[in-house]
Structures are given as C-alpha cells and as structure tokens.
Write a structure and sequence with these properties.
- The chain is an alpha+beta fold and 477 residues long.
- The protein has 3 domains: 54-164, 2-Layer Sandwich (Beta-Lactamase); 233-320, Helix Hairpins (Orthogonal Bundle), CATH 1.10.287.130; 327-475, Histidine kinase-like ATPase, C-terminal domain (Heat Shock Protein 90, 2-Layer Sandwich).
- It has helices at residues 10-53, 56-62, 70-82, 116-123, 166-216, 233-282, 288-322, 335-352, 372-388, 443-453; strands at 91-95, 101-104, 128-134, 140-147, 158-164, 331-334, 356-359, 367-370, 395-403, 406-413, 457-463, 467-475.
- Strands 2-1-5-4-3 form a 5-stranded antiparallel sheet. It has a 5-stranded mixed sheet with strand order 7-9-10-12-11.
- A hairpin with a 2-residue loop joins strand 9 and strand 10 (406-413).
- Helix 8 runs parallel beside helix 9 and helix 9 (372-388) packs antiparallel against helix 10.
- The two termini are 56 Å apart.
- The relative contact order is 0.06.
Length: 477
Amino acid sequence: MAAVKRRGGITRRWVSTTIVVIGAVLLVFAVVTSFLVHSYYYNAVRMTLDSRADSSGVAAFFSSYLGAPDSAFSARAQEFVDNFKDSSLMEVWVIDRSGNVVATSTGFGADDSEAPDYAEAVGSESGFGRWTGRLSGGEKVMAVTVMLPRSAGGSNGALRFISSLEAIDAQHLVLTVLISAFCLFSLGLVALSGAFFIRSIVRPVKNINDVAGRIAGGEYELPPLDVPQNNDEIGELCRTINRMAGELSRTEKLKNDFISTVSHELRTPLTAIKGWGETLKAMSDEDALEKDAANKGLSVIISESDRLYSLVSDLLDFSKMQNNRMVLKKSRIDALELLDETVFVFTDRAKRENVSVNYTPNPEPALVLADPDRLRQVYANVLDNAVKYSRPGGKVTVGSGVSDGYLEITISDTGQGISAEDLPHVKEKFYKGENSVRGSGIGLAVCDEIMALHGGTLDIQSVFGQGTTVMLTLPTS
C-alpha cells in the first residue's frame, strides 16, 4: 500500500487556523477600536465648536453693530475676542462684511489662505460651514464658520472658530500604539500558550505514532514510551500503548512457542508411526519374535495416532472458538455417568504409567443440559493432564457432588504442580508453563470455552511441587 502523504501536522494546522483567526479578530478589534477612539475625539471637538457657534449670545453681542461703520464693527470684534473665554480650547476669528479678518483671539494675523468653511457658510442658506484639514503651515485643524445676522443693508460678517487637532491626533496615535501593542501581546500569549499546549501533545503523539508504526511492522520488543507527568489523556494513551505492546510481545512469543510446540508434537508421533510402519513392512509373519515386535509397533502406532487425533481436534476446536463457530449439541444427560466412563478409560492408562486413580462413583445421577462429546472432551483433557503431570507412584483423585443446583467435579493430582507465575495464564491460548511436559498449549483454553458455553466454570488451584486441583462446575437441570 502506498504511503499516505501527510498534509501538514497539528502545529501547522493550528497556526493556519487558530493563530490566523485570532490574529484577524485582534486586527479587526484594533482597527475598530482605533476608529471609534478617533471618531469619539473628533466628535467631541465638533460638538464643542458647534455649541460655541450656535450660542445665541454671539448674535446678541454683534446685533447692534451689524450696520455700524467698519471701524465700530472692528472695535466690537476686538472686544469680543478679548473677552473670549475658550481661547485655551479654540481660536476665534471675526470676519467683517468684506470677508476680511478684523480680529483674532491669538492677537496674530490670520492665515486665511485655507477657509473652505467660510466659503461654505457664505453660500449656504443656513449660514453655517464646517471644514477639517490642514492649514498652509501644515497644522491640522477643524473649523466652523457661522454667519452673523444680516444687517439692513444686506451684508453681514462671520465668526470662525478653529480648534487644532494636532494634540488629539498625537493622543490618538499613542492610544493606537497601545491598542496594537495590547493586541500583539495578546496574540503572543495565545501563540505561546498554544505552542506549549501543542508541544505537549504533538511530541507524545509523534512518539506514539512511531511506536505504533513499528508495532504495525511486526516489531514488538520495544522500550516503553515515556509517560508524561500530567495525568491526562495523553498519559493514559501512552500507558495503554505500553500495555498493548507488552501484550502483543507476549502473544507473539506465545504464538512462536505454540508453532514450535505443535511442530514438535506433530513430528514426534509421525516419526514413530513412520518408523514402525517401515519396520512392520520389512517383517515376515513366521517369526514369533517379530510378531511380538509387530504388536508393540501397532500399539505405538495406535497410541501416537490417538495423540495426533487429539492434537488435530484441539486445533480444530480452537479455530472454531476463535471464529465463534463452536456449536453445542445439547441434550439432557447424566454428567456423572459420562464421568464414570471417562475415568474408566484413563484408569488403565494410569496403571501403565504407575499412577493410581482414586475414584468412588457417585450413585446419585446428575442431570445436566450439555453436549456429551464436548463434556467428555473436557473430562479427558483434565484427566490426561492429571496423569501426564503425575510422577510415577503418584495419585489422581476424582470426586463429585451436587450443591445449590450445581454439579461440582474435582480432579486432583500429586504431580509437580504449577508455579505462581504460570497459574494465572494456564487457561490462555498458546500458553505453556516452564514445567510443561508436552502438549499444544490450547487444550485448557478450549476446555474453559466449552465450560463457559455450558454456563459452567473451570477453575484451577495449584501449589508448586505438591499438586494441582481442577474444579469443574455445571448447572444441573
């Protein structure tokens, strides 16, 4: 399968989404805030100029001098600017009928090269004009011109109020810089915290991905992942990956051991069968000694064939168990009668191996709903293990009883027992303990599955060096 090309990692996607989006939001915030501050200050100046220009006292002050000679109007104008109380906020000009500036609140000559507001007021029916711009000297100002009431002769003068915007623009620039610095600082904090957070995720995920890739490639003997100190989801994932790698490694070892064991288990009887078959083929029927050897060879062939049949049956049952295809053909049977038959078969074999079987049949029947072939398979497997692991001169004890609606069967031996390390795993597939004699390692796993399908249990107790007890329970009906 072709490798999938990665289109950017988590960090790149985070930068391209979170940082860009937050940066755009902060940029909009900075622009909008700067615009609002600018509008607020300019509106404040505009309202101040408008309120001063609309004052009714202005018209009243000049009303009696509108038709007076220019000298009298100029004197009145000078008096007005001398008494102007808002000179710290704005500059005021008094313009006569001819459009000449006759008085200013600053006392200096007027720079009238730029007065669009006056031209607007002259041509407007409302007699009002406003302008924002720069004077010929470069100073930015806002100016409002209001025409004085018309005199009887039809001409009138005007008042022009001018406020400098330089200080406001400077203050606005400072605020804009502060807002921009705040936005950049906020973006930096987001980037820093996000980078720290992403780093705490990306690095462990990258390590996990590397380990998972190596596991997918069949490499199971790996050093454990470093678990982050924070007890979070990433740490739990690392611990899970470590457990998974350990279980896969153990399962792989068990599988390899199983393949090796099965190969050996198959090769041994096949070698014996082949050897004795060749021997029997070379024998004649006349020699009595050869007949005794032939009988011995046939016994070996039959015994090893039984081993092969049992091994193949275990493999077939295990395959069915793995694919959930093990189906029971249940009927109402006497489980103790079936036990009697199985013990009888194994008693003769146990004598040949110098192992005694202590069994007292239970006279009371124990009716259960079970598959007789599968139940016999469980009995035979457990008894086979008991005899197989018993030392010469050892003893196998079989007991039974019914209690609280359950049939309980115990099969004990005085064999070598199971170590404490192996005991929790003996029912696992492929598992073979350190002291296993022979076998595929799946017999008990199949038996445990069969008992579970019957609604029963298979439990094992053992003391290493003293023996093992297997307890089978089945619900009676």
